Structures are given as C-alpha cells and as structure tokens.
Amino acid sequence: MRTTSAYKWRDAGGLALRYAFLLAWLAVCVMPVVVLVMGSLKDTALFQSIPQVLSLRGFTLENYVRSFQQGNYLHFLRNSMIISFSALFVVLIVCTPMAYGITKLASPKTRNLIVFSVLATRFLPYVVLALPMYLFFARIGIQGTVVGVVLAHLAMQMPFIVWLMLGFFAGIPHEVEEAAVIDGASPFGVFWRICLPMVLPGLNASAILAFIISYNEFLFAFFLAGYDAQPLTVGITRFVGGADVGAQYGVVAAYGTLIILPIIVFALVVNRYIVSGLTQGAVKG
Amino acid sequence: MSSRRHFNPWAFVLPGVIAGVVILGFPVAQALWTSLHRLRLYRLHDQVWVGLENYARLWQDPLFILSVRSTITFTLGCTVLSVIAGLAVASVMSTRGIRGTTAARFFMAFYLVPFVATQVVVGMMGRLYVWEPEYGLVNFVLGLFGADGPMWLISRDTAMGATIVTNAWRLTPLAVLIFYAALATVPEELLESAEVDGAGGWKAFALIKLPLIRYHIGFVSLIQLTSAFREFDTVFALTGGGPGRTTNVLSLLVYNEGISAANLGMANAISFTMLLIVAVISLIYMRLARLGELGQ
Known about the structure:
Chain A is mainly α. Chain A contains 14 helices and no strands. Chain A has helices spanning 2-40, 50-54, 62-69, 73-104, 108-120, 126-139, 146-170, 174-182, 187-198, 200-216, 219-224, 232-240, 249-269, 271-279.
C-alpha cells in the first residue's frame, strides 16, 4: 500500500514537471510572436524593455496607419493572395493526378525511379534555381509576372505534395476500386468519383500546406517578381530595407504582424489537417 | 484487370514530369552552362567561355572558404538542435497522462506556430525583439536569472549561434510532429514489460524508444539538413550575412555574387558546387538509411 501511494506521489510530481517543461516550450514557441504583436501597438520611442512592451503604456495604432499608407500593405496583400491561391490550384491539379498515376504504374522499377526523382528535387538549393529561372522566364517573356512565381512554387512544392498524396492514395483498399470497375466505372471515373473523395483529408492537408508555403515564400518572389507582382514577404523588405530599421521598431512590428498573424490564426484553426498532412507517410515509414 | 488495357497511368504522371523537367531541368542546365562562362548581369550578350576557371578561382577565394565553413556550422547546428529539441518535446508529449489529452492537442496546435511563421518576418522579429542586446527577449529572460547576455547578432562570436537558434526554432515543429506520431507506434506492452524488468523512464527511452524510431530520426535529420543547407530567407532578414560575413552562408554568397556583384558566372559556379555537395550528402545519407533497413 505504501509503495503504491509513493508511486502516485512520484507520478504526480513527474507529471507537474513534465507539464512545466511543455509550458516552457509553449512560451519559446509563442513569446517572440506575442512580443512582436504587442510591440506593434506601441509608440516606438517608448521601447525600453520587455515588460513595457507587454504593458498597455504608450498604446497607438500609428504603426498600422503607416503600414497601410506608406507600406502599401493592400497592394502586396492582393499579390500574396493571387500567388498563394494560384499556386495552390496549380499544385493540386498537377500533383494529385501525378501521385495517383504513380501508384498505378505497372513496373515497380519505373515507379521507384519516378518517386525517387521527384523526391530528389526536394534537395535542390532554391538559390541555385532562382537566378537561371529569372533568365529563363525572361527568354519566354514572363519575367516579373505572377506566372513565373507560381511556376517556381509549383516546382518547389511538387516533391512534398506528391509524397504527401502518395501516402493517402496508398491507403485506399484495392477492393474498392475493383468493385467500381466491375460496376462499369471508367478509369477516370474511378479516380474522380471513387478515389478523390476517399483522400479528401489528404487534399485538405495538401491545399492548406501549399497555401501556407506559398504565402510565406520569399526567395523566388524576391528574384522573379516585379513590383506589380510582389507579395507581402517582398513588400516588407522593400518597406523597411535601406532605412535604419532600428529607428522604426514599431512599424516593422506592425507590418510583420499584418503578415504573420493571419497565417498563424489560420494555421491554429486548421491545425488538425497540418498535423495529419505532415505525419502521413513519414510514420508509415 | 480489364481496366488496365484502357487506362494508361502515364497520362496522369506525365504533366507533372514535364512541368518538373521544364521548370527545374532548364534552370539547372543553364546554371551549369553559365558557370563555365564569364558573364556579367548587365551585359548578358557578352558571354565568354572560360571552362572550369570559375571553379578553380572559387577554392582560392577566402570569402568562399569562409562561406563553406559557416554553411557547415549553420547546417549541422540547425539539424542537431532541432532534432534534439524535437525528440525532447515529442517524448515528453508521449508520456502517459499527457498523450491523447485535450492539453496535448492544445500544446501541439501552438507548437506549430514557428513552422507556419513567415521566415522573413521571423528574421526581422529576431533582430528587433528577440536578440536585441538591451531590450530583447533573450537578454530579458537571462536578466531574470541574473545573467548578463552578450551582444548576440552584433558580436562576431555569438551571431552564428543566435542565427542557428533562430532557424532551429523554425525547424523544430516538424521534428516534434513526426517524432510524436512515430512514438505512438511503439507498442505499449513493450514498455510495460520493460518496466517490469526495471527499465523505466530514461532507460526505456534510450534503449527501447530511440532504436524503434531510428528510421524517423534519420528521415527528419535529412529533411532538416537539406532545408538548413539551402536556407536563405531567415538569414537574409536576420543578419544579412553579417557581422563581418560570419553568417554569410552559401545561399547568401550566391546572391551577393550574382546580384550585388553582378558576376553571374561565379554565382552559378557557387550554385553548382552547392548542388554537388547536397547531392553527395543526400546519396550518402540514403545509402546509410538503406543499410540500416537491411540490418533489421
């Protein structure tokens, strides 16, 4: 009896310690963002310490007014949305059938070769591609446009989304497809009406992750987009670049908050899909 | 089976293959071709064949050697740090009494924040609010424990460390997620029988759980290694390569050479060298991973 209660006490102590660790990690993950958001609401001249940033002293919306007016936030937001949604659609339209087709290839050797080649492109350093891509797009007349950025994003996301969808398609039992064929479904019908609905969670995860990755991407947009096509990530560097950033803590924080907070809130709402998308495939090993 | 005759899976696969070959293949070929020439950004018609001269000059350039060194430090630092942090968080999340609870789901949702945070904003946030020596978050927390924090991004000795921590912060959520999911596949009976044999807590972790998820540790390491190796956004916004080029990793050097110095031939020679390095690392890694599978 005494031993069990001793165990219980030790377990309770251990549990408290483990929760303390998890709370500390929670702070590491969110505190920088909290400080950024609180800093965006303060008069820059008053930035003296973390407790002051976290308080409500010196509250102002001035930084946001400047981000919209001088920083042209809405112009860049519009481009970010155009790029992210186009990339999402193009990525899904190309990668979903591709993943499905790969699982249907008859020869395992060809199948492995294709999967390996697609995955291998994940290791390409993006900076290697950005410069020649710029020259290539100039040659075919789409330099500086949204189209170039979207194509770059398609290539960048293909290995990840194909790998993710492969895991979901592999989970469909053969009997389901065979039954559909016996019922007279065409090959495309099997894909469109039987298999796609079954991998809907995977499609959701792919769409969400493709959107987030495109929205956050900077390097390709920086190299490939002209002013009319530049997204928020390039917009903020244009806005704060050159000038002494230290003098405008508040404005950088406001602009940063306007970029980072919507995507974080979105990710928190749909976190179930992000978790399933990122762990699918990896864990089947 | 009769459907096979009418259905050619290549019709589904080819559009993606063609897109990949055109969008990726052309730039890679172009990068290789340009790296064998002397070519300036604003004089694109004046292309002179120089063979391997750019590559030869590269290895005599102290800036390139410095960049190679800082890239190795940065890549290894980010990989090791994010994998260890990921293992620590995931294994605490997986313990009895926490896994599967509402609290665990709540934690996991917020642990994704660094993963979805826009990298350039993370860089600026790091510079202004986290590593700032006088007012920043890190030195504030150190101050609570009575320690006097260093100058971080301003000092040559600490800038690389701070840059590694910032990028590892961003990489860790992926490690936490995959390890957490992998640890769920460790059979509960195995742990119980180990406990009966007197191997609980740390021993069970090191002797049972770690070996069982070694495939996932390798997989995550490779992902982190390659994404840290090519990282541009975070470092560009955090330090811009400074101070004194201590954090000028290879992707930034390519940018400096190609855009700022307008030397496309040289920039592409650096690019292609990066490509070779990452190809060799990946191949070695995959070979090792396959050997591990055979040993099972």
